[in-house]
Amino acid sequence: MLVLGIESSCDETGIALYDTERGLLAHAVHTQVAMHEAYGGVVPELASRDHIRRLIPLLENVLAEAGATHKDIEAIGYTAGPGLAGALLVGASFAEALALALDIPALPIHHLEGHLLSPLLSKDPATFPFIALLVSGGHTQLMCVTQVGAYELMGESLDDAAGEAFDKTAQLLGLGYPGGPALAKLAEQGTPGKFKLPRPMLNSGDFMFSFSGLKTAVLTAVRERTLTEQDKADLATEFQEAATEVVATKALAACRQRRLSTLVVAGGVGANQRLRQRLDLAAVKQRVRVCYPEMALCTDNGAMIAFAAAQRLLADKAETANRNGAFAVKPRWPLATI
Question: Is the pLDDT of residue 323 over 70?
C-alpha cells in the first residue's frame, strides 16, 4: 500500500511517500526558518501562506523521485493537530481535497504520534513495548507504548517544555532563531561548572517536568552581570547540562519503573548531541537500548506522518474523515486521547 504523508503543523512543509512493503520511497521538507528569522519566531499567518505555496511543488518532486503518479497513491495521512490552526488547515484541506479527487481514504494523524513512531523508520527499529521520550517544540512527555494507538502518558511538562526553554534561553543570550541549535552550538565552546543552575524536579519522584524555573535562573544570571562572549558560552553549557540531565534521568527512571529495556527518543530536541550522549552512557549501565530517528527525521516531516498513517491502516485503527467533505483540525490534542 502506497501512503502519502503531509505535514504542515508549524514552520516545515513535509511531503513523503511510504510503501508498506518497500518502506520510505521519497520525502522532502521545506523549512521556513529563513522567513521567520527576522521576527525571532514563527508568524502563524506567514507560515500558513508559505505552506500553500510549497505543497504542490513538493508533492510533484516526491512523486518524481519515487517514480510514482497520483493514481498510485492508495491513502493519505495528514497532520490534524496539535499545531497552528491555520497551518493545519492548509495541509488538511489539501489532503482531503486530493483524497476526494482520487477516491481514497484520508487519515487525520496526531503530530506527536508521528514523532513517537518515527524511530521505527530507522534501519534497526525498536519493537513494542517501549518507553517513548517526546521532546518536540512545546512538548516534553514520557509515554509507555505497548502498540500502535496504545499510548499511556506517564509524565509531561507542567510549564515550559524543554524545547521552549532552549529557545527562550537562546533569546536571553542574544542568539538567533531557531534558538535550540544555536544554543547547542555555543555550548560546545563553554566550560562546565562556571555557572550553577538548578535541575528542576530532578528528584521529584515522578515523571513530570518543569523548565520555567531553569529559564528564570538564566535570566537572573544575565541580569546580575555584563556577560562576556565566554560567559555566554559557559552559561549555555550549564543550561544544556541541567536540561539534559533532568530529561535523561527521568526517561531512564521510567524504563526502570516499567521494567522495559527499550527507550525511543523522538522530536527536535532528540537531535541534541549532549542529550544523546547522556542517554547512551546511562543506558549502557542500565542495559537499555536507546533508539533515535534518523537525524533528517528529528524535525517535522512528512515521512513520520505517512508512516503513522500506514501503521494505523495495517493495525486496522485508521479513522478516516467523512466522505461528505467535512473535516476538522485540532490545534490542541492530547496524545493520550487518540
Answer: no
Residues 203 and 269 both lie in one domain: yes
Residue 259 backbone phi and psi in degrees, to 5:
55, 45
- Distance, in Å, from the CA atom of 264 to the CA atom of 132, rounded to the nearest integer, reads 5
Report yes or no on 121 lying in a domain: no
The count of structural domains within the chain is 2
Cα 119 → chain centroid:
11
If asked whether residues 143 and 97 sit together in one domain, one would say: no
Could you give the residue ranges of the DSSP H alpha helices within 4-108? 33-37, 44-66, 85-102
317 and 277 share one domain: no
Please determine, for residue 151, whether its predicted confidence score (pLDDT) is greater than 80.
yes
Can you state the angle between helices 44-66 and 85-102, rounded to 10 degrees? 30
Looking at the whole model, is its pTM more than 0.85?
Answer: yes
Does 308 reside within a domain? yes
What count of other Cβ atoms lies within 10 Å of the Cβ of residue 183? 28
Shared-domain flag, residues 108 and 132 = no
What is residue 145's three-state secondary structure? strand
pLDDT band at 324 (very low <50, low <70, confident <90, very high): low
C-alpha to C-alpha distances, 201 to 35, 220, 250, 282, nearest whole angstrom? 36, 19, 9, 19
| 73: containing domain | 2-116+298-337
The answer to whether residue 32 scores a pLDDT higher than 80 is yes
Q: Distance between terminal CA atoms of the chain?
A: 23
Q: Are 302 and 288 members of one domain?
A: no
**DSSP result, 33-45:** HHHHHTTTS--HH
Determine the 3-state secondary structure of 51 from DSSP. Answer: helix
Alpha carbon of residue 223 to chain centroid: 32
Check which CATH number belongs to the domain holding 236 and give it.
3.30.420.40
| Predicted confidence (pLDDT) per residue in 258-267, tens digit | 999 999 999 9
